[in-house]
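Lecture notes, part 5. Sequence design as translation. It can be helpful to think of inverse folding as translation between two languages: the language of shapes and the language of residues. The source text, in structure tokens, appears below.
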């Protein structure tokens, strides 16, 4: 993600545009989103940005998955020549303007949330989200020093309440020991 000079908002890359595909102005693209159905819906207004600073608005006509990535069609792009101009551009939009599927969360939504245990005690705050093997991992700065990696799995993170600013977690024994963290935070005895 980066800042969009045209809007000042947080900018999210959705796809990197490759070469033209076929003869009707479609382009091959490498997807950079987990939600192409929502982000590349027909009629979605997005922006093309090139490495040299050029920018151009565009409207998605449609897309489809292929064994080599995705093929995207844009309104007003109808020939191979028009599609060639798009090669190398990054397709994206201001994050706040993009839909998020119901029940899903953006990484930016999770940063700063309090991690709360089953007894309602705040254990720490989410500093980052790292990609994990079985699930993503919340990087939590613990209240009494140190950090913990908490799997972002429904079996552990029972409730994510953005309005309340907290994640209610049912932590496995030994993942975070609040009493040990309190003792460790007091220093050597």
């Amino acid at each position: 993600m980066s800042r969009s000079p045209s809007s000042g908002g947080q900018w999210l890359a959705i796809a990197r545009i490759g070469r033209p595909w076929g003869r009707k102005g479609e382009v091959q693209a490498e997807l950079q989103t987990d939600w192409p159905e929502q982000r590349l819906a027909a009629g979605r207004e997005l922006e093309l940005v090139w490495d040299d600073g050029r920018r151009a608005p565009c409207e998605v006509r449609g897309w489809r998955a292929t064994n080599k990535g995705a093929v995207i069609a844009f309104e007003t792009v109808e020939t191979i020549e028009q599609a060639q101009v798009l090669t190398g551009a990054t397709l994206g939009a201001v994050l706040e303007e993009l839909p998020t599927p119901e029940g899903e969360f953006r990484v930016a939504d999770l940063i700063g949330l309090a991690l709360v245990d089953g007894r309602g005690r705040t254990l720490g705050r989410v500093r980052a989200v790292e990609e994990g093997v079985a699930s993503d991992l919340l990087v939590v700065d613990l209240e009494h020093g140190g950090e913990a990696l908490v799997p972002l799995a429904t079996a552990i993170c029972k409730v994510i309440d953005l309005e309340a600013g907290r994640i209610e977690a049912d932590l496995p024994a030994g993942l975070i020991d609040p009493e040990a963290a309190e003792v460790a935070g007091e220093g050597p005895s």
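The translated text above is only one of many valid answers, since several sequences can fold into similar shapes. The two ends are 45 Å apart (CA to CA).
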